[in-house]
Amino acid sequence: MRIGAGIALIAIGAIIAFAIRDTSESLNLTALGIIIMLAGVAGIWVSYQIANPRRRSEHKVLDPSVEKQYRTTPPEQVATRPIDVTPTHLRDEE
């Protein structure tokens, strides 16, 4: 059941519970409407739990060779002069 179906069940249950006036002794429409609304709420809750599973706190051990592949090291020599990033057509001619 998706969220839309759950909302539809809640709306139908509310209509049955609160909008329809019937004096039948064999069927209590208020109780039936509330049961349908609870089914809609349960359906929304179940669809949310299925769509958004909780993250488990298990830590996976990575393969060291894969981890080494993505490890970065700083360069051994850094630039000694500032790098000019000015576009060539805007540079002053020296």
Automatic annotation (TrEMBL):
Domain DUF6458 as annotated: residue spans: 1-56
InterPro entries (UniProt xref): DUF6458
Ranges that cross the membrane: 29-48
Keyword Endoplasmic reticulum attached: no
Comp. bias intervals (Basic and acidic residues): 60-70
Keywords noted in UniProt: Membrane, Transmembrane, Transmembrane helix
Matches recorded under Pfam families: DUF6458 (PF20059)
Region annotation Disordered: where it falls in the sequence: 60-94
The name this protein goes by in its record: DUF6458 domain-containing protein
Native species: Kribbella antiqua
Lineage, highest ranks first: Bacteria, Bacillati, Actinomycetota, Actinomycetes, Propionibacteriales
